[in-house]
Structures
1.
Amino acid sequence: MLRFVTRRLFLLVLTAIGITLVTFVISHVVPADPAVLIAGHNATEHTLELVRHQYGLDKPLVTQYLDYLNGILHGDLGMSTYSRRSVVTDLAAYLPATVELVLVAIVSAVTIGVPLGVVSAIRKGGVIDHFSRIFAIAGSSLPLFWLGLLLQLVFGGTLKILPLTGRLSPSVALPPKTTGMYTIDSLLAGQLGTFVNALEHIVLPAAVLAFASLSLIVRVTRSSMLEVLSQDYIRTARTKGLSRRRVIVRHALRNALIAPVTLLGLQLGYLLSGVFLVEVVFSWPGIGFYSVHAVQGSDYVAIMGVTLVVALIYSTINLLTDIAYLAMDPRISYET
Amino acid sequence: MTRPLRKISFRLLLYASVIGLTAVGLSACGQSGAKTKSSAANGPASNAPLVIDLGAGNAEPSSLDPDVDYDNGDYGILSQIYDQLVSASGTTSVSIHPSLATTWSSSKDGLTWTFHLRPNVHFHDGSLVNAKAVKFTYDRCLKMKQGGWADFAEVKSVDAPDPLTVVFHLKYRFSSFLNSLSSVNNGNIVSPTTLLKHQVNGDLGAKWLYNHDAGSGPYELTSWTHGQRIELHKFPGYWRGWKGNHASKVVFQFTAASATQRLGLENGSVDAAIGLSPQDFSALAKSSSVVVQNHQSLFVQYLALNCKKEGPLKNRLVRQALAYSVNAPHVAKFVWGGFATVAKSYAPTGIPGYVESPIQYKFDLAKAKKLLAQAGYAKGFSVDGVIIAGDQMGSLVYQLWQSDLSKLNIKLNIKPLPYPQFAKLQQKASTSPDIISNAWGLDYASDFAIYYQFLYSKATSVQGNWAYYGNPKVDAILIKARAAGQANSPAVLNLYRQAQKISYGDAPYIPMVQEPARIAIRSNVHGYQYNLGETPYDFNVYNMWKS
Amino acid sequence: MHLSAARDFRARHRRALKLASRPTSLVAIAGVVLLLVAAVFGTLIAPYGSSKLDLAHALQGPSMRHFLGADELGRDVFSRLIAGARYSVVSAASVLTIALVVGTLVGALAGYFGHAVDEILMRITDVFLAFPSLVLALAISVTLGGGLQSAILAIGAVWWPSYARLVRGQVLGTKSNDYVEAARALGVRNTRLLVVHILRNCMTPVLVQLTLDIGNVLVTFAGLSYLGLGAAPGSPEWGATISDGQIYILTAWWIALFPGLALYLAALVLNLAGELVGDILMPGRSTRLGSDAGRRRRFGLRRGAPAKPSPPREALDF
């Protein structure tokens, strides 16, 4: 186990370096002159030269990469040319919103999807099963941004029961900052009105993000459960006289859940991509929203910063889920 | 490790989550309901903040440092925090009023301007607003050379002979100097005490001022949540005082989509908003709880044709043909929902120095065809039209124009470019786009800011003259006008008339419409006064209050 | 031998027909045909040109004149929808071509030569897979300038790794086959061996993967256009029309919602068709990650069973 973990950690470091190389290479195919944006478009050529020197834009590429890598190791991802402050500060400001959204989406998808999948498998051919299967097919190809617009129109425009965009109504004061996630912060501070308002705002974007994820979880849980239920040891347990409920809960469920858990790691990559679109549709001020606005301002530094951080987070979580997976299922033989 | 799984009954979990979600849903509905009711039953809501939604179009400032920012929405926020020497206001035409300066005079040769300051005005940090502070402000602006500093390019030096007197020495006579002091991008008087206290490496407080305030205006900065909102609260020591009805807190919200703004206005969570789509404005106008005001703005939407680049557009006849192919009334109707007015000059109506051009182009495809044939382009050509990325109105203008151009065998390729890329390409005539669609926002309401920046051959690069136009006759007229007296004098107006006669003939620009400024305000909000002299983002919050 | 081969062929044929006549399969096939017809013959079918303005009827809802409504300049939403189909199909095809070519090259080289070459190429593949797809595609697209070609290149650059892995697995599996050994013994050169004998075996799983991917590539491309990268505003491409139409969501919802619906249905039928192809060509394939094959794949496959087509990149796309 330890060998496995260390090997994977080593691979993670390699991957991380690879990630920085990729982002560096991409960002140095830059057509625009970043100096113009940093200094402002009224700056003289002299000022531009100073800026170029200050930001190291005139050094050879290899030096620039090493400086870049060095910066990252010291927690410096450069200056956002649009917001005029360090990208790290920007990310710290925008990241909690994304984390909040992704968390709520994952939790919703799992708490609804897993039971649904299990029930579908147990009562195969029943109403819930048919519903889940249609739902699974319908959800697998759904364009998230379109679903978002549709829900906005229905719940916000027509029924007028949910807000269209943002995290909090402008007339509601922000909760004190503990985690940066308004739902949690307002609960911790006991501000119930703010909590409900924050919840109202997060419902639609999280629902959209969770939707297609949900359909896959249902599908995978169902097939995994079906596979487990057809195993010999289940049949043995039943013939031994154990009740159906006991068999399912004590024996089948544990093994059937391995598949959805593994899936979560893969799902994260999908969710991290999807959150970019959802944040734009709902003007949800997270890193996806930040990144897309950086696109409009040609803020390559910010875009690369986001890309790098997201990839690193994704890889780290993948590693953690692999370890968790290993811990959950000792039957797996791992390569050393 | 396996124990928790054994204990949990999935069915229980399923039911629990369903019940939980329903409960939350119900309470949420209840809450939204309660909110609308409570806002309608409010008495004088002195503690509830005034909520102003500035919309999604780049309204969020990139910096709160008045000597750095140069974006549309910044002034709307900075004008609440800072004061200027003079202010520009008026609903249909702009005039200058005293602000921090009470009286002023200029020398006969126009090279020296003397201002007398209002006594006993304090900054938010408690220090006095005096001549030293004004000198510090302008020195800082000219030293940092960022943002809108070029508005003061003619200033040689600033003196503070006594605490309440400021003297400006100009390099050359500049007829719009007084107007320029009300610029939306500069001239905001900052507190040297605060800035020098927070100075790092001689940056004159730039790093700190990015997200702090050093002003003397009616409001102080409470917080800035990037991507969401800026909150301000009242400065009790404000020199105009707080007798009567004033908003004590204001929240500026950004990034909301037009639909959200509309719904917010309808349900009362937003008190005032700009930047909605023409259709949403019109829908709101029908609502009884919202009032929509329609005014002119100082933005003229135009097309800039590259006169210097090798290609069909270098030919004067081709440019004239293009001018005849633009259907300005259609742009007013279909892009702006009918609320824009057809432009009859490069300048927007309402500024000193406005004069109609003696030559006007009316939509006439037949004439355009003839001119093209004359120029040798009967077979047409292909041309690139650039807009700044995100400019949906500009995109619509092109799409509308595309179909008319195709009748002339001209293929228009629409190219959105991010601003920095555009700025770089624009710096040289050979790389500058063939056609640029834009709306020119004036830094301050004066003739100079338009005619000169559009037509003067040396005002090139991103500061102005995007068409790379150069006609020595026009240059001569402009220089004469710059040095002349009042912008509204018959002599100066005549000069501008002449300048337009010549330049319209050369057709470097095709002005289309003067954009409307439409503001939606809830009926329980009072005191709003539209100000043509500033951008539509500027709300006179100090005089607004809600019942 | 002759007879049994023929019987075998007929049996497979019959099986395929049976699979294809399930209701979902029929819908899928019909849908794909419709999509292709729209893409190829769009200009002939559409009632109006996709950029024909009808200012008098701007922003009107679905009516006899404009079947799905008109947009802000009076253009017919239905005609633009059909025109958009071509953008989608062509872009998806271009992306997958790039992904296929690059992925096959990398995977084949890695699988065939093994050792250092394999290690390096697979590490590079892993690095690309460490980025969530849209995030990387966004970054690449922006730096390439953000137009249609940039988007295609960017998504192609993001999609090739799964093909590399697939081909590599196949090559590993077949390169030690008897007939390959025999061919090598006969003196057939490396490249010819690789291309003719080994790669031919990979075709089936690669084909299945392609059909599974089309729908997701389509949606990803529309997503990039929606974000402003890809097709220019004003073009009838589905993602761009959704983005342009968003501002009218309360007053003229048909402008944004119908293209979105078209996108959804197109992706749906393509995904269903992909599963049908998969069921016909590779009946035993497993898409369940809980299975043993899935587990072995996750933990580093060096030798052994060839990888079966994985579920689409990141298991799903939007």
Note: Chain A touches chain B through 66 residues (CB under 8 Å).
2.
Amino acid sequence: MTDGIVLAYLGAALAIGLAGSGSAIGVGIAGTSGAGIMTEDPGKFGLVLLLQALPGTQGIYGLLVGFLVLTKIGIFAGTPATLTINQGLQILNACLPIAIAGFFSAIYQGKASAGSIGLIARRPEETGKAVVMPAMVETYAVLSLLGSILLLNGVVL
Amino acid sequence: MAISAVSKFHIFAHLSIKEPILSELQKLGCVEISRIEEKAEFHNWKDIEEDTKSGTTVKLNNIKFCIELLSSYGSEKRRRLNSLFSSKKSYSYNELVKISQQFDYEKLFTQCKELDNELSQIKLQENKLITAKQEIEKWQDLELDFNEIDKRKYIKYILGFITKKYFNNLVFDIEHLVKTTIIQTIKEEKNKLNIIIITLKENQPNIDSILQKYHFEIYKYSYSFTGTPKQILKTISEQLILIDKRRSEIAQTLIKLHQDNQLIYPLYDYLSIKHEKEEAKKYLKKSEKIIAIRGWIQNKDIPKLKQRLEKNYNEYEIDFTKPKKDEQIPVALNNNNLVKPFEIITELYSLPNYYEIDPTPILSIFYFVFFGLCLSDVGYGASMALISHIAIKKIKLGEGPTKFFKLLYYCGISGIFGGILVGSWFGDILNYLPPMFTNLRNVLIQKLALFEPADNPLPLLILSLTLGVIQVYIGIILKFIINIRSGKLYDGLMDQVSWLFLLTGILLVLLKGIMPSIIGNISWIIALIGILTIVLTQGRTKKNILLRIGSGVLALYDITGYFSDVLSYSRLFALGLATGIIAQMFNMLSTMVNIPYIGFLLTIIILIIGHTFNLLISGLSAFIHDARLQYVEFFTKFYQAGGIPFKPFALKTKYVKVEDVNK
């Protein structure tokens, strides 16, 4: 195994691990406040679940980038490519946007979701707005996903 | 555009036909009744008070209580799930009236109340028993009747808890200082011991001081049960079993009651209809012989209303007036069937105000296209369209849910187009087909698909941004039109057309490479015209000439806003790609199980679960991000919103459908 491929693995691991951790924290934050709301009105379970699920997408984006990296270096095809250190670093760099922005945006989206859950507890008729607000945070996760994909696409093996 | 024109109406009718006319309006369901407030015109008119105390509200609350109790205990989970997917029962209005006269709800209510009381009493008792049980379990191994403890003449029993670390010292002290004393450990807990000390009464003062020294906690038995702890525990469990038995008896009774009293649902709806009518009466005024009703009606419904009243009544007068500018005019959207479902998206944000353009028709086109790009999978789109189609056709849903499923249906169709465009069919599932389908695959993926986002992302990304440019342009142009309509042509020229010039100029400069050279030369001129107008006009509210130019220059900073607006549309590309890749991931995962015999089954299970998950997650993302683009990037350019919804006075029901009211 070449040194370059180790770096590519590190990139995939960071993308999946960091973005996933962020999502776990975010979903946790939203879940805590959701559980509080449901003690008063268990009927809101569906809505609360939806809002709780919103910060979960970063983890998926991270996994997606990791998957793209693994496909790119030919792990699934069974014949891993030989990567130079330079190529490995390029792939590692490509993973950083979603790893970093995924981690932080998921946490803050979790907080926004928690706020929105509080909103639907008091004003159920404003559900639409409550769902859109956390999505504003997710924009940056989507943009970093885009960045990672484009960077990864630019790596020549 | 598609905001319904409304008129204000006044009906003056003889007092004798007050009830029938109100019922008629309610059945018609196309007018909104509003409060008559003017003092001048309705000088000597009074409020209607007579039957505000008819007790409908109380009855309604009582029945709601019954329904909640009965449906939480009375119906099993399965049936509740069924009711979600089954159609509502239909009743005619007259049937409802009949039910309300015949159904004796008082009896049911008393029964429910009694059962509910008993349930809460039982719960209370159960809690008490459980606490007692936990307490007495600590003394389980004590072979002594609690009540005997204080009845001995010479012997003193002391029960209590002591921290483990003091126990040895306590034993030591007592053995040395006090005679004829037995100490026994009954139960060991985490860091505490439950002990009993048996001694002579005369020793008590000595022992007490020792106990105090070691923070001994004396246990006082405070229950009325008699016998040894074991016997007491047995009694308690017997009582708990009795309680459980009684509770399931009550549940059975409730199930039976629920089955026997299905009519409570139509009754509830009838009463809420009645309640709504009584609430409407608060808005009316009456003189000695006449009542006045005021309200709003969509112009298209006026003939219907006139005809209905003419057919049935004589002693009334009705007139219609155009709304005045300063009134709070209710807004109803009125679009054709294709656009109608997309009203949901507009309503989620806020209705337009009465004098505005309804953004829904334009929004619907963009929403449709964007959703397709975000979902971009033939399989998912088709699943969504199919499910919504079945939901609409097979289940008699209310108006709201039908509208929503229609929206999903269109979104699904759009997803199919998006999928064809990028060649995604449940991800790359076509690649796993047996070799004989190679031709089919080649046609579907290579001929039909125009983009290959995973290998060559730029074309699709550019398409996304281009769509963004188009929508932002349309937003600005709409604002320009609004300005013209309200007679502010110059504002429109200075605020919108200037920006259109600047943005077009910049776009042309960016596209210089692919444009004829002549355009490349004039593009700077166009941009310059834009910049000059913006710098010269944006500060026009300021008096000071320097400040005016200054704020004009500052206004140029808004260019970053437009820039980020357009970049925001890159999410269309990213989300679309994400859907396809996640689907690919599951396809690959499913082929990785190489277990003989059951491997195939596992593959199928992984595919079903994986794709369902992806459909839900990607569908949700597409829905939300598409809406966000409309709200944040499009609406901010021109949309004022803030309309109050038109709320027709109608037969509103929760559990049953009322039919045939308009025949």
Note: Helices of chain A lie at 3-40, 45-53, 57-72, 85-122, 127-154.
3.
Amino acid sequence: MSGVKQIIAVTWLNLRTVPQRLGSSAVAVIGIAGVVVVLVAVLSVAEGFVASMRDAGSPSRAIIMRSGADAEMTSGLSGPETDVIKQAPGILRDGRNLAASAELFVIIDLPKRSTGTSANVPLRGIEPSALLVRDNASIAEGRMLQFGTNEAVVGRSASRQFGGLQLGSQVKSGQITWTIVGIFEADGSVAETEIWCDARTLQGAYRRGNSYQSVLARLDTPSSFDAFKDWLTANPQINVSVRRETDYYAAQSATLARLIRSIGFGIAALMAIGAVFGAILTMYTAVATRAREIATLRALGFNAPAVLVSVLTESMALAAFGGLIGGAIAYAGFNGYQTATMNFQTFSQVAFAFRVTPALLILGLVWSLAMGLIGGLLPAVRAARLPIATALREL
Amino acid sequence: MKYLPLLWKNLWRRKVRTTFTLASIFIAFVLFGFLMTIRAAFSVGVELAGLDRLIIIHKVSLIQPLPSSYEARIAAVPGVETVANNSWFGGIYQDPSNFFAQIALEPTPYFKMYPEYRLAPEQMQAWLADRQGAVAGRALANRFGWKLGDRIPIQATIFRPKSGNGDTWEFNLVGIYDGDKGVDTTNFFFRYDYLDENRAQGEGLVGWYVVKIDDPSKSVDMAAKFDDMFTNSSAETKTTTEKGFVDGFAKQIGDIGTIMVAILVAVLFTILLVVGNTMAQSVRERTSELAVLKTLGFPDGLILALVLGESVFIALLGGSFGLLLAWLFVQQGDPTGGLLPAFILPGRDLLTGVWLMLALGLLAGAIPAAQAMRLKITDALRRN
């Protein structure tokens, strides 16, 4: 028999005997599945967080803040400054409406549903052009707020995560009471965590005079950004920083995403070591219980490499099975799981959904195969080196 | 005790198997140590928070300032020992990623209120003499290699200075404060009068107040009293205990504790299977041997204890070394360079770890031990 045929024959024989060693095989499978669940689940948190930030940004939108400010919360622009900003070239026009909105970004204390403790919920004062600027946002229930009143609309995620934000409900904050008249959606992005109200009303409520924190502008094409930015930074009347919205949100998610990822990989790596030990034990057992069988095969003329490959294949097949189970559990248990956390850059809550992406599932499978390979290596060598005569003699 | 050698011998009849089982348990408890450390980093602040301290913030949200005139009114309330104001500065040191808390305050009342922050008296004197003086926590000073006398420039994000070069505020490091284990030494404190005189806007406003009351049992009544006092004023307040405040703040991040425990359950369940499987195998292999022991007159209870003892022994041996390694690692200090407010492995969690090892050993050994106990001598001897 040729080498390849031998390998296939022995491997097939091996795999068919797995059911006889169900108990110990299950240990390896479950161990590896556990690692994959933890790895994929933790990384899906980072993935979801990054996605909610990424989907919020558009390359054709620019955010203008006071120079030196790295988040809206710490920025400040006077009313006249925002008027200057709105004169910059490249801003989209829809008839007489200019796609630029001067906004305020503050936080409001509301109870978080999951814990019942108060949370910093972002409250944004907008101008009537806000929906023209944010072409990805739209009112899903109720209606848009009426400017000049203390009506407000809330994002879908905010309504889900925080108490008292249903359609028609009233939110009392300081001396003002907001009436929720609509719920808006924005592709599940970070904007959906916000409450929107009239910027002028908010200025009064938070004693901000005629001041804003940022201007969000939609450009006629993404490529007009450079000219737009140059005009603004060269203008001596104002001292601002201009960022593409995509860059702004990418920078905000970077720190937290990196932290979650390093924790996820760290924990999974340690767990993987444990799981590899479990796999080694399983495979040693498999080799030990089949010592006579393997020796018989060798005596019949099957060569050592065939035996080696067959043991490795068994180990990797078990691992792949574990990886698939782990991926399935992670997907079923965590994909789309809604949560909210604190974004320290904006000092406010960000609601997002865990995302178990195909890339993560593939990563999980790659990890499980690697664990199977490492776990099977030593036992495979042991099997290939089994001294035929003694093994046959053993009980 | 006299059976210990027998136990030891049984353990090492399959060296490879025992080694890998020990290694799995070892890893599991290293992880246990790390996860508990992460959990503690987010919860230790809550445990250390004083019950006799209340935090008064603006009712609308924490970012809204309160008038500094409130201080005198709060201090006049019977039962108030000390009042201190705090203001968040939110500046940037060199790069936005070098985040740490900068808080403007009045040195004397604040350090009186927080005896857990220890500052040498001569450094306090130097601070009171220097308006631009600032003190940093030990962990923060180590993170950036600051020494006493260093001039520290911090770029403002909220409060632009009236004078000086652009957005930059400069501070003289006049003191470094220490704290017991678990006390947050990653803060940067500077003088409120320097902030208030030199900022372009926001004069006469403070971020929040901390109030020390003489009787912790009255904290709820006192909180209500403060809030009533400022009802219908320009800035209404919300008063909570410091514990409630810190706890609520930690919960804004998410329920870290639950997540850590969930991961641990996954880890320990896996290890339980590995150890259980090992014990089952070793009992199976020793069937005839166990039968011989029984023939020699070993009672059933003793057989049960021997097998259980073996699995508990493995769990304790592997687990203790794992926990020891985690503990040693944590003693080296925070690898994130001060990102976490605390980096300790609480003694209580170490104890939990030992209990978990015992539980793991007993659970994993239970079925094989019961099988070994029920073994019929005749059947077992006949098996091969």
Note: Residues 245-289 of chain A form the longest helix (45 residues).
